[in-house]
From TrEMBL:
PANTHER family: DNA POLYMERASE SUBUNIT GAMMA-2, MITOCHONDRIAL, GLYCYL-TRNA SYNTHETASE/DNA POLYMERASE SUBUNIT GAMMA-2
Pfam families, sorted: HGTP_anticodon, tRNA-synt_2b
UniProt protein name: Glycine--tRNA ligase
GO process terms (BP): diadenosine tetraphosphate biosynthetic process; glycyl-tRNA aminoacylation
Keywords, in A-Z order: Aminoacyl-tRNA synthetase, ATP-binding, Cytoplasm, Ligase, Nucleotide-binding, Protein biosynthesis
Domain Aminoacyl-transfer RNA synthetases class-II family profile: residue ranges: 9-308
InterPro entries: aa-tRNA-synt_IIb (IPR002314), aa-tRNA-synth_II (IPR006195), aa-tRNA-synth_II/BPL/LPL (IPR045864), Anticodon-bd (IPR004154), Anticodon-bd_dom_sf (IPR036621), Gly-tRNA_synthase/POLG2 (IPR027031), GlyRS-like_core (IPR033731)
Superkingdom field: Bacteria
Entry GO terms, CC: cytoplasm; extracellular exosome; microvesicle
Gene Ontology molecular function, alphabetical: ATP binding; bis(5'-nucleosyl)-tetraphosphatase (asymmetrical) activity; glycine-tRNA ligase activity
Keyword field contains Hydrolase: no
Length: 409
């Protein structure tokens, strides 16, 4: 087995063993292209999403959050070109539309509807609503995180190509003449976000998608590729969608989807820059970037070098010995207090302290806090750093402040 295959196998096995990712419907033999996040995976997903919102919504003033329905009027997907064009070639030469179909309503009234293949559709149909509610000035964006579905012919490579996925998308509306400048700004933003969640910079490569290979709506696309263990593949994309979508939805719905310049009163259709991330691929790139094997204290160890912002568990709290009630009670007290300030905290009293450190390293917990006999005397605890294995003694009274400070740096 080649080295890269071994790494992938180890990551998949760690994900299952430690509760990050399980095969979907596993006890029934699974369902191809579906995966379930376990307790730690679900935390990691939420942390990635929170970083995304922080970077692209809370740290700026021009993005509006929405949460649109997955089932939409089928007219949306006819106008967007997905009904006629969202297809992959089959080996037999026929084109296969990868939108999932279902029906809404009963009996003769049942209508064919689609599970959305991208979250962008929900954003475009709410353009007018957001403009009417908030009167934003151009440029501004609408962002959404949500599930999307694609009946991929060959789902593969763990969570890389799945049938039920989640996207983090922004449609950023700009004046037609400023698209190139805004495209460059978003290009930098995409890199900054990847750095924020700990995706290894050296493994990210931009690919300018050539004419004839872009999606039907795009005049320029950059694929941001990542060196996954199974090859260099698309992690996320940045597209210039022109006024394709708003114009198409305006024509099909007969509802005007224009922007009126508040200074000149001139109406025009905004153009769109779209940064689009898949949660699964971001999750996998974060995992691959964090996966580290080294030797510590003469022993080989595997650990996930997560950035604190995405680590599913920020700190674990241990009583040195679990059969000493005075230590357990004190540790419980400290754990309960800490959890009020930092919810992603874990209690661990299983096995000896060395084993607990290894377990926490393997799930990427940045800090382990041990309550020992000295704690009972002077109210200090040890904090052990995941990456260096070094420990320092700090006051239990300042623990929350110390931890926050460490987690931020
Ligand atoms: N709204 C634009 C759009 O959907 P896309 O390149 O088709 O563009 C955007 O998808 C991102 O969604 C991809 O870069 C990838 O991260 C993710 N994605 C797409 N299909 C996927 C699949 N089958 N499994 C996992 N992620 C997928």
């Amino acid at each position: 087995m080649a080295d890269h295959e071994r790494v992938m196998e180890k990551i998949v096995s760690l994900c299952k063993r430690r509760g990050f990712v399980y095969q979907g419907s596993e006890i029934y033999g699974g369902l191809a292209g579906t995966w379930d996040y376990g307790p730690l995976g679900a935390e990691l997903v939420d942390n990635i999403k929170n970083c995304w919102w922080k970077k692209f919504l809370y740290d700026r003033e021009d993005i509006y959050k929405i949460n649109a329905a997955i089932l939409m009027n089928p007219g949306v997907w006819e106008a967007s070109g997905h009904v006629s064009g969202f297809a992959d070639p089959l080996a037999s030469g026929k084109l296969f539309n990868t939108m999932f179909k279902t029906s809404a309503g009963a009996g003769e009234d049942a209508a064919t509807v689609y599970l959305r293949p991208e979250t962008a559709g929900g954003i475009f149909v709410n353009f007018k609503n957001v403009v009417d509610s908030f009167h934003p000035k151009l440029p501004f964006g609408i962002g959404q995180i949500g599930k999307a579905f694609r009946n991929e012919i060959a789902p593969r490579d763990f969570i890389f190509r799945v049938r039920e996925l989640e996207q983090m998308e922004i449609e950023y509306f700009v004046r037609p003449e400023e698209w190139e400048q805004k495209f460059e700004e978003w290009r930098r933003g995409v890199h900054e976000f990847m750095e924020m969640v700990g995706i290894a910079k050296k493994s990210v490569h931009e690919l300018e998608v050539l004419d004839g290979e872009r999606a039907h709506y795009s005049k320029r696309t950059i694929d941001f590729e990542f060196d996954f263990p199974f090859g260099r593949k698309e992690l996320c994309g940045l597209a210039y969608r022109t006024d394709f979508d708003l114009s198409a939805h305006e024509k099909a719905s007969t509802v005007e989807l224009k922007y009126q310049d508040p200074d000149t009163n001139k109406k025009f259709t905004p153009h769109v820059i779209e940064p689009s991330f898949g949660v699964e691929r971001t999750f996998l790139a974060v995992l691959v970037s964090a996966y580290t094997e080294d030797t510590l204290g003469g022993e080989t160890r595997v650990y996930l070098k997560f950035k604190p912002s995405v680590a599913p568990i920020k700190a674990a709290v241990f009583p040195l010995l679990k059969n000493k009630p005075e230590l357990v009670n004190k540790a419980r007290e400290i754990y309960t207090e800490l959890k009020k300030d930092i919810p992603q905290i874990m209690w661990d009293d299983n096995g000896n302290v060395g084993k607990r450190y290894r377990r926490q390293d393997e799930i990427g917990t940045p800090y382990c806090i041990t309550i020992d006999f000295q704690t009972l005397e002077d109210n200090t605890v040890t904090i052990r750093d995941r990456d260096t294995g070094e420990q320092e003694r700090v006051s239990a009274a300042d623990l929350s402040t110390t931890l926050w400070k460490n987690l931020k740096t």
